[in-house]
Write a structure and sequence with these properties.
The chain is an all-alpha fold and 59 residues long. It has one domain: Alpha-Beta Complex (Eukaryotic RPB6 RNA polymerase subunit). The protein is built from 2 helices and no strands. The protein is elongated, with a radius of gyration of 12 Å. It starts with 6 loop residues before the first helix and ends in an 11-residue tail after the last helix.
C-alpha cells in the first residue's frame, strides 16, 4: 500500500535525491538534454515514482 507524502517528506526525498544526482549519481529516468538542474531531475523522478527512497512512519 502506498500513501501520499507530506510536503515535508516530499521536500526531503527530492532534496536527498537531487544531492545524489549533483554528486554524480546517474538519473533513473531518461532526461531531456535541456534539463540540467538536479532538482528538476529529482522532481521528475519523484513524479514518476521511481526514487528508491522510502519513508517509515513512527508509531
Amino acid at each position: 500500500m502506498t500513501r501520499e507524502h507530506t510536503r515535508f517528506e516530499k521536500a526531503r526525498i527530492i532534496g536527498a535525491r537531487s544531492l545524489q544526482i549533483s554528486m554524480g549519481a546517474p538519473p533513473i529516468i531518461e532526461v531531456p538534454s535541456d534539463i540540467i538542474d538536479p532538482v528538476d531531475i529529482a522532481i521528475a523522478e519523484y513524479d514518476k515514482g521511481v526514487i528508491p527512497i522510502s519513508v517509515l512512519k513512527e508509531e
